[in-house]
Amino acid sequence: MEYRLLGRTGVKVSPICLGTDCFADPLPEKECAKILNRAVEAGINLIDTGDSYAEGEGERIIGRTLKESGMRHAVLLETKCDHGRRVPGLTLDEFVPEELPNEHGPTRLNIIRACEASLKRFQTDYIDIYLMHRQDLEVHIEETLGALTDLVRQGKVRYVGCSTHPAWAVMEAIMLSEMKGYVRYSLEQPPYNLLDRRIENELIPMAQKTGLGIITWSPLAMGVLVGVYEKEKDFPPDSRAALRGGFYAERVTNKGIEVGSKFVKLAKEAGMTPAQLGVLWCKDQPGVTAPLIGPENLEHLEDLIPVMGMTLDDSLREACDNLVPPGSAVANFHNTAGWMKAQIL
Fold it and tell me: Between β-strands 185-189 and 157-163, what pairing exists: parallel, antiparallel or unpaired?
């Protein structure tokens, strides 16, 4: 397996990385531990989570599992400072009133507090990669970069980046870092799959020009590309759209389901499972460092591990382009980002 450099850093990451949004929501800890241990055993070395995932329980599970296995230094821990209203560190049964004004966002106050809370949940002294989760126009980017710079200098964080930010905002952060000596973003983490290719228009070219790493999420379009859904608003009870609703459900469209059905046939004709082709397509797109996968059981993980050694051939790439043209979208996976105005087909 060939590891890939993360942007301009000297850090090497596996061509597929492990996303853990399903840890504790709904997966029980024992299943999470099995998935995490098997992923590391297979060579996956970047573990992604967020301080809001299952109200921090995802970080706790990862921390306990790595401590028990002794694998902390074999992996890169990536977590996020959430943009939503919450208090990092609270347990699942504690209530936080919505009106608390300073318990969210990329402010110095919240970034430092959130980082300290994540370190405790992980039971570790440092976070390898710390991301700002979504853009917040109310907070000046220099306040964010200043706080992140302090965390890096204190040794609590090694690298920083952002998730689901517009290309212009990432570029602004990079330029300010170059001009004023702040720590520089090493990566952006956007949504990216065959159903939503809009990052190809600006973000990917910018990343290639500036040496920015791109770690993408939702390569299987929340299951649409593997045939989970048959009708819009008619969801299987165990699907993410049914379990979580809201903006998750909004991502399932009739047009996306139509493309997903064709994609499943294409994968079978190519001798792959739809999940393998979906991740492979994303992994081998220009400018992508690695996609995150979110297996919900060991069987799903075992299906995807071989993709790390596969290569997308030109005929399959062209066939996928015929389903959804480059730069376009038939489903909106940027629907948690208010800045995205480009329409889906």
Answer: parallel
Q: What's the confidence (pLDDT) of residue 341?
A: 79
Burial class (CB in 10 A: 0-12, 13-18, 19+), 91: exposed
Tell me the backbone φ, ψ of residue 83, rounded to 5 degrees.
-90, -15
In a domain, 80, yes or no: yes
Residues of the chain with pLDDT under 70: 83-100, 343, 345
Nearest residue to 294 via CA among 226, 241, 218, 239: 218
Counted domains in the chain: 1
Which domain range does residue 314 map to? 4-323
H helices of the chain, in order, are 29-41, 57-69, 108-122, 141-153, 167-180, 203-210, 240-244, 246-250, 254-269, 274-283, 298-304, 314-323
Tokens of 17: 């990385």
Q: What CATH number should be reported for the domain holding residue 269?
A: 3.20.20.100
pLDDT of residue 90: 41
Instruction: Work out the angle between the directed axes of helices 108-122 and 141-153 (0-180°, nearest 10).
Output: 40
Residue 53 is among the residues annotated as catalytic for this protein: yes
Spatial separation of the C-alpha atoms in residues 164 and 263, rounded to whole Å: 25
**Is 307 inside a domain boundary?**
yes
Ramachandran sector of residue 233 (left: φ over 0; alpha: ψ -120 to 50; beta: rest): left
Q: What is the pLDDT of residue 257?
A: 96
For 214, the token pair is: 């791109």
Q: Please report which helix (H) or strand (E) contains residue 136, including its range.
A: none
Structure token pair of residue 90: 């609270």
Catalytic, out of 53, 130, 192, 229: 53
Decide if 332 is inside a domain: no
In tens, the pLDDT along 289-315 reads: 999 999 999 999 999 999 999 999 999
DSSP 8-state class, residue 321: H
